[in-house]
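Q: I'm writing up a methods section and want to include an example of the input and output format. Could you take the sequence below and give the corresponding predicted structure tokens, formatted cleanly so I can copy it straight into the document?
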Amino acid sequence: MFSRHSDHSFLRYCLGGTLYMPSTREVMQKIVSGQLPDVLSMVMCFEDAIRAEDLATGEANVIRELGWLAAQVRSGAVADEDIPLIFLRVRSIEQFRSFAAQLTHELADILSGFVFPKFYSNNAHEYLDLLAELNEKHDTKLYGMPILEGRDIAFAETRRTELLALMHKLRAYHQYILNIRVGGTDFSSFFGVRRGIGSSVYDILPVRDALADILNFFGRAEEDYVVSAPVWEYFLAYKRDDLEKVMQVDLHRALRTNAQILNDAIDGLLREVVLDKANGFTGKTVIHPSHLRYVNTMQVVTREEYEDACQILGTSGGVIKSAKSNKMNEINPHRSWARRISRLADAYGVVEDERKVLALFHAGLGVHVNAAE
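A: Here is the clean output for your methods example:
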């Protein structure tokens, strides 16, 4: 179980599939009534998801929606821990300042934080200084999630200089950073490309290179950030799946060989999430609620991973055979991996094997994931 009041070191692993939606949408009643049980975290967007002329409408709607939700919590109609993490994606530093002036203690206490688009080394301090001020003013914890998505990061000649500058600037604000997010769609747009439903973002070479460099800077164990994976763009075509048939699938073998599991959109999503995890991303941006359970479920830890992690964390050094006797656990080199697995297990639970993961695709995990045993 977690809530926005959970410890930072744990909470940053809990976002799962983060659902993005326009700030003009009314959604809080669906959250409270249980119509969106798989939402762990959500972003109401003032930027690309709405037209500039709809910004005032979006701001008014967000204030109204947050106020209504705060009243539901005060009345006891909904428990605080049953509310997903709620973030607002601002449009610009100017809009952030304008909206922050409208934020009351009541509204701030229902929020988890803000998402900062087009985040550069030359505007980082403006976003983060204001975020720090809001934390002090409202005496609550509001986190920032910068999106690394601009030209200076997309293009090779400026990327590493920009990432290094960002890394140095963010260190002073580490306590406020919940996730680093990446703009795979924006990166693709700079090169006039788009991944197909049968491929992944890692197949687009210039985008892959940008993502690799972001992980090289912010995925380092000593920097201690959680980096979320880019959005999957294809919707699920709804159909009722034969669970018994799906349960017979060897999930990772099917993903490697392109054998069908559910349908093209979900199979593509699952293949990309496997690559996300292998490269060190945690969680993923989601634009359709039907994708949430798949992203959330794929964060679950298998018992073999969990036992290896426990063995590594419980041993002082050297090399030992894994619990299943199928691999080498080299204690010091694998310790960072083991810490990450342990935190994911705390957030999403532990399942016995792949068949249990497939069963969770069908069942869903609920607002607070506990896929245990």
